[in-house]
Design goal:
This protein has 122 residues and is α+β, with helices and mostly antiparallel strands. The chain is built from two helices and five strands, in the order βαββββα. It has a five-stranded mixed β-sheet, with helices on both faces. It is globular and about 55 Å long. The two termini are 28 Å apart. The relative contact order is 0.20.
């Protein structure tokens, strides 16, 4: 079940991530590259080299969960790096802004394709 929310802490892993990595390898990146414990309830975000693929890693009751978002158009914007935390600290709203492509200017938005919805007649 999708249970990410605004009460959690979000950290973007520095640098580009090899997006072929699975849950176990991403857990290793959290420990080695970010110096954090993956099972503490935080959400860790990984971005691929071309900034079109994002993976989120989160420990829930009962196990690890990985969410994946691939953009068909546009790229993810990366926030400013924080040397102290060895990552990009983010809040829920920052993640939503990044995923949705919202810009600082209220009239501008990064390009995102919308899923085509099919109406079914019963």
């Amino acid at each position: 079940m999708f249970c990410l929310n605004d009460t959690m802490r979000y950290f973007l892993c520095p640098g580009n991530t090899d997006m072929r990595k699975g849950i176990s390898s991403l857990c290793g990146l959290v420990h080695d590259r970010m110096g954090q414990e993956v099972r503490n309830g935080d959400v860790f975000i990984f971005i691929g080299r071309d900034h079109k693929l994002m993976k989120l890693l989160h420990a829930e009751d009962g196990g690890m969960v990985m969410y994946v978002k691939r953009l068909e158009a546009g790229t993810f914007s990366i926030p400013t790096y924080n040397e102290e935390t060895k990552s990009y600290f983010m809040e829920w709203r920052d993640l939503v802004v990044m995923v949705e492509g919202i810009q600082e200017s209220p009239v501008q938005r990064l390009r995102r394709l919308r899923a085509q919805r099919v109406e079914y007649i019963v």
